Amino acid sequence: QVQLVESGEGLVPPGGSLRLSCAASGTSTSIFSTYIMGWYRQAPGKQREWVAHITSGGPTNYADSVKGRFTISRVNAKNTIYLQMNSLKPEDTAVYYCNRVGIPARWGQGTQVTVSS
Predict the structure, then answer these.
(1) Separation of alpha carbons 94 and 18, rounded Å
(2) Contact 96, 107 (CB under 8 A)
(3) C-alpha–C-alpha distance, residues 106 and 66, integer Å
(4) What's the CA gap between 116 and 66, in Å, rounded?
(5) Helix (H, G, I), strand (E, B), or coil: what is residue 81?
(6) Cα distance between residue 47 and residue 110, in whole Å
(7) How does DSSP assign 104-117, residue by residue?
(8) C-alpha distances in angstroms, 58 versus 74, 75, 92?
(9) What span, in angstroms and rounded, lies between the C-alpha atoms of 31 and 8?
């Protein structure tokens, strides 16, 4: 069973940057490389929303709210995906999660991102 662990939490001022990581275990690198992987976030009092995803071949897609500021990437040999977040805004404050797109695994604990001066 795939297990997901997010890391990289932090408190940053508006305009700052942060890099999140998501490590998947319980699957081989060859199988992980076939997954479409995504980042999601949940702000206080709001529903979880999709942020970005990356296909097995590398093409990416982003929510309009983060397009041009966030970059999703993956290193299949490490069973890991990343989210580079630049020009952060207070509205980016949320718990960030990763998961497989289409056939979600059990959700991990997430990692807290707080953007505040």
Answers:
(1) 13
(2) no
(3) 25
(4) 17
(5) strand
(6) 14
(7) -------EEEEE--
(8) 8, 10, 24
(9) 25
